[in-house]
Write a structure and sequence with these properties.
Immunoglobulin-like, globular
Length: 138
């Protein structure tokens, strides 16, 4: 009996002593790939919020990935509606780097199928990266 108690204590000690290793924060969200071509000539992508209820405010994480040969900076964001907000950093995104952004869609006062547009002007490119924001509001 004494050896059984000792074994249980040993197992509890071993189980409690091994701490799970903290996970490294992994990037999340829809990836938006930035290339040399997109930085110079613009491009387009669609962000889908799916079905929402009128009055709901939804957030969608985005992951910006710089696959170009040069640093990329979002120098200006234009939006066609006050119902969309893009939280982002204005710091340069170096080649190979990834950065999180948050897109918010406010469905208050909206109904039916919605298609909004965000224009991201990058560095000195003349044409923007167009992000179409789509939602179906019930």
């Amino acid at each position: 009996m004494r050896s059984l108690v000792g074994l249980v204590i040993l197992l509890l000690f071993v189980a409690c002593g091994s701490k799970p290793q903290p996970k490294e924060a992994t990037p999340y969200g829809q990836k938006i790939i930035l290339t040399d071509s997109i930085a110079r000539l613009g491009g387009a992508d669609t962000i889908r919020f799916g079905r929402m209820h009128e009055g709901e405010i939804a957030e969608k994480p985005l992951q910006l990935v710089n696959k170009s040969a040069t640093p990329i900076v979002i120098r200006q964001v234009e939006r066609t509606c006050g119902c969309t907000t893009l939280e982002h950093e204005n710091q340069p995104l170096m080649p190979g780097e990834k950065r999180q952004m948050m897109l918010r869609f406010d469905a208050r006062g909206e109904w039916g199928w919605q298609l909004k547009l965000l224009r991201l002007y990058l560095n000195e490119g003349s044409k923007p990266l167009r992000l179409y924001v789509e939602a179906d509001i019930e």
